[in-house]
Amino acid sequence: MREYLRVVVALAGKDVLLERKSFETLVATASFALLVALLFHFAFDVSSAEGARFFPGALWIAILFSGTIGMARSARADEVDGRGRGAALAPVDRSAIFVGKCLYHMALMAVVEAVATPVFVAAFALRGIALPHLVILGLFLGTWGFVALGTLLAGATAGERSTGLLLPVVLFPLLAPVALGGVAIVSAGVAGEVAASTGSWIRLLVVFDVLFTAIPALFYDSLLEV
To answer: Fewest beta carbons less than 10 Å away: which of 17, 51, 87, 224?
Structure first.
C-alpha cells in the first residue's frame, strides 16, 4: 500500500512539475472562474440579502465550467505530447495513473477555488459565512466527485479533436448529484441553517465520490487499452 501511494504521489507530482513550467492550465482555469464572477457582478444588481441565496449556485457554475476546461486541456496535452502513452507504459499499477491524475486535478481545483471563492464573496456582497467548515466540506466533496468523473471522461475522450466540446456534453448530465448536493451543502454553510436534508446530501456525495473513484480505478486498465 505504501508503494502504491508513493507511485500515486509521484505521478501527481509529475503533472504538477509540468504545469509549473508554464501554468497554462491553471491560468486558463482560474481566469474563466474569475470572469464568471465578474460577469455575475456586473450583470445582476445583487444586494447582500440576495447574494447569500445566489452565491452557492453561481460559485458552482464557475467551478464546473472552469474545471471542465482545465481537465479537457490536461487530457488533450497528455494525448498530443504523448505523456499519457508514456505513463501507460510505466511498470506500475494502471489504477495508480488514474488516482494520480485525480490527485493532480484536485490540487488544481483547490487552487482555483481558493482564488475564486473570495472573489465571489465580494461579488455577491456577502457579509459573512455562518459555517465556513460546512462550505469547505461541500466544496471538497463536490469537487472530489466532479474530478473523479471528469478525469475518467476526459481520458476517454482525449483522442477526439473536439474534446473541449464533447466532454461537457457527456459530463454535465452525470454531474446532477454533484451540482445539487454541492449547492445544497454550500447554501447551508452560508446561511447557517443545517437541515436533515443537508446530512442526506453529504452522505450521497460521499457514496458518489467513493464509487466514481474506486470503479474507474479498477477498470482503468481496460480504458487505456481502448
So the answer is: 17
Of 140 and 42, the structure prediction assigns the larger pLDDT to: 140
- Give the model confidence (pLDDT) of 190-211 as tens digits: 999 898 899 999 999 999 999 9
Cell of 224: 487505456
Q: How far is CA 135 from CA 69, 111, 184, 197, 210, in A?
A: 23, 16, 10, 15, 20
90 phi/psi in degrees, rounded to 5? -70, 145
53 Cβ contact partners less than 8 Å away, ≥ 6 residues apart: 187
How many Cα atoms occupy the beta-carbon half-sphere of 167 within 13 Å?
31
Pairwise CA distance, residues 137 & 185, whole Å = 8
Local structure of residue 44 (DSSP, 8 states): S
What is the domain range of residue 112?
2-225
* Confidence band, pLDDT 50/70/90 cuts, at residue 86: low
What does the alpha-carbon distance between residue 25 and residue 70 come to, in Å, rounded to a whole number? Answer: 6
221, 93 contact by CB (below 8 A): no
- pTM reported for the whole predicted model: 0.90
Cβ contacts of 130 within 8 Å, gap of 6 or more: 189, 190, 191, 192
Q: What distance lies between CA 121 and its chain's CA centroid?
A: 19
Contacts of 196 (CB under 8 A, 6+ apart): none
Total domains in the chain come to 1
End-to-end CA distance of the chain: 27
| Non-local CB neighbours of 223 within 8 Å, separated by 6+ positions | 152, 155, 156, 216
